[in-house]
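Fill in residues.
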């Protein structure tokens, strides 16, 4: 295992050294074994006590080199220069066997110079939601940060009420956000901005560094990776909820989990964030906001690229997103070849779901079993407007008749693109309620189900049920 601290040492003027502050009766309650192995971390870290010591004993490499990073961000459209790691610390970077660099970041580690008036802590509720949410996305094939371990405690902290504090070790390629680059640009610290770019080329955008125009190549990569990520959010029904530019990763991965939600009923204008009544970050606003955020980031590239170059690069966003989205939706609908009917079929299907407020994930899963030639009415019976459904099914049948796939091949392919289990808010809430009583059994069971979202495993049937009435529109607070 190689532990490095390149950000803390190469960019020492952009960080502050801070020691992680342990919580009362801190204990590791979950370790992500497969991630631990993938990163090549020492086997003895699989022991909860050893991992706890690695995180908090004063002289371990993780605790010794911990730093808080400075950044800014556009929050709900407004520039805020006063952000930074207020409750998280970059502990170390691990270089895995394949040469990939991974940050280990401890969230909820106590106050830092960027905490402003807040306590530097995270509640158990939000820590569980981030752990489950990031792992759920990863296993669906949606780029995301990941969770290495969860630390529970007996320490109470105050939000709207008293809650238990916890911590999470988050893993991703780096913690570089759009807001890092924006901050050094808008504060006119262009020498530091330059060092941030130099660092990014050396450690994270090596392929771009060798291109004729490295800055254009880097911005292009960020634009395309972001477009692909958001296309996947839209296809799988994920609403991030707080797409401020400080929550946007330059690696095009889902990052900083707040009041996010997977859709239950398909409502295109769904808003998961209770603090966003205007719906700036609603489900169907996400593609547009992605571009808005990339525009904000591209300001930081203006010392290196002309306006025309930047505009040209940003124009790649929309076609990249639409191509990716189209491919996934085609696969979800079992449409094998590019056919003139495809967009009509996909759009009409989505419109029927939206009009009748049907469950997004469940209906796509039922679609896998639907054969327009069979006369089986199970899917048809889910709709109130049957004539509309019949028309759609007729067009589907005509289109499928021109495909090469056998029925079995098509079904199998569709089952691999339409998950049976997603992280519904009500499931996360059930896990949280139990965990707050000290029982993590449901957390582990749900995590196991989310790790195989496409499998037809009867053991996981209870996690594929639509929400009960109480769990339909849970209000998830932003204060975490
Ligand atoms: P977030 O809403 O988690 O994306 O955080 C926005 C900003 O507030 C970041 O600069 C965080 O570091 C900071 N922040 C959020 N919660 C806390 C907290 N409990 N203590 C200190 N800083 C926080
Ligand atoms: Mg954030």
């Amino acid at each position: 295992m190689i532990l490095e601290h390149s950000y803390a040492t190469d960019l020492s003027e952009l960080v502050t050294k801070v020691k992680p502050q342990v919580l009362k009766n801190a204990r590791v309650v979950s370790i992500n074994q497969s991630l631990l192995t993938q990163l090549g971390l020492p086997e003895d870290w699989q022991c909860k006590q050893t991992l706890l010591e690695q995180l908090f004993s004063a002289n371990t490499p993780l605790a010794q080199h911990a730093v808080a990073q400075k950044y800014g961000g556009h929050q709900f459209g407004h520039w805020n220069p006063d952000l930074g790691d207020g409750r998280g610390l970059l502990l170390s970077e691990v270089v895995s066997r394949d040469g990939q660099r991974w940050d280990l970041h401890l969230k909820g580690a106590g106050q830092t110079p960027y905490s402003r008036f807040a306590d530097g802590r995270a509640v158990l509720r939000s820590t569980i939601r981030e752990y489950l949410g990031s792992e759920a996305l990863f296993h669906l094939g949606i780029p995301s940060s990941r969770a290495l371990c969860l630390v529970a405690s007996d320490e109470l902290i105050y939000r709207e009420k008293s809650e238990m504090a916890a911590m999470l070790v988050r893993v991703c390629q780096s913690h570089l956000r759009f807001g890092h680059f924006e901050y050094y640009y808008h504060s006119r610290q262009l020498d530091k901005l330059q060092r941030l770019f130099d660092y990014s080329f050396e450690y994270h955008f090596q392929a771009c560094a060798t291109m004729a125009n490295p800055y254009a190549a880097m911005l292009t990569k960020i634009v395309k990776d972001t477009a692909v990520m958001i296309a996947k959010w839209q296809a799988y029904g994920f609403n991030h909820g707080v797409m401020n530019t400080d929550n946007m990763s330059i690696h095009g991965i889902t990052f900083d989990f707040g009041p996010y939600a997977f859709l239950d009923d398909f409502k295109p204008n769904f808003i998961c964030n209770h603090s966003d009544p205007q719906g700036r970050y609603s489900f169907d606003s996400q593609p547009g906001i992605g571009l808005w955020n990339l525009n904000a980031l591209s300001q930081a590239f203006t010392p290196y690229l002309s306006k025309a170059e930047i505009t040209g690069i940003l124009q790649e966003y929309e076609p990249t997103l639409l191509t990716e989205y189209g491919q996934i939706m085609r696969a979800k609908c079992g449409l094998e070849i590019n056919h003139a009917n495809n967009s009509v079929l996909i759009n009409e299907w989505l419109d029927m779901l939206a009009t009748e407020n049907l469950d997004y994930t469940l209906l796509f899963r039922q679609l896998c079993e639907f054969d327009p030639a069979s006369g089986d009415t199970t899917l048809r019976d889910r709709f109130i407007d049957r004539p509309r459904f019949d028309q759609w099914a007729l067009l589907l049948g005509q289109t499928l008749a021109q495909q090469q796939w056998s029925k079995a091949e098509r079904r199998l392919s569709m089952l691999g693109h339409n998950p049976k289990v997603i992280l519904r808010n009500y499931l996360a809430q059930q896990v949280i309620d139990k965990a707050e009583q000290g029982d993590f059994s449901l957390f582990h069971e749900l995590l196991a189900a989310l790790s195989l979202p496409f499998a037809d495993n009867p053991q996981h049937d209870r996690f594929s049920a639509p929400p009960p009435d109480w769990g339909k529109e849970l209000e998830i607070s932003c204060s975490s």
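Residues 214-236 form the longest helix (23 residues).
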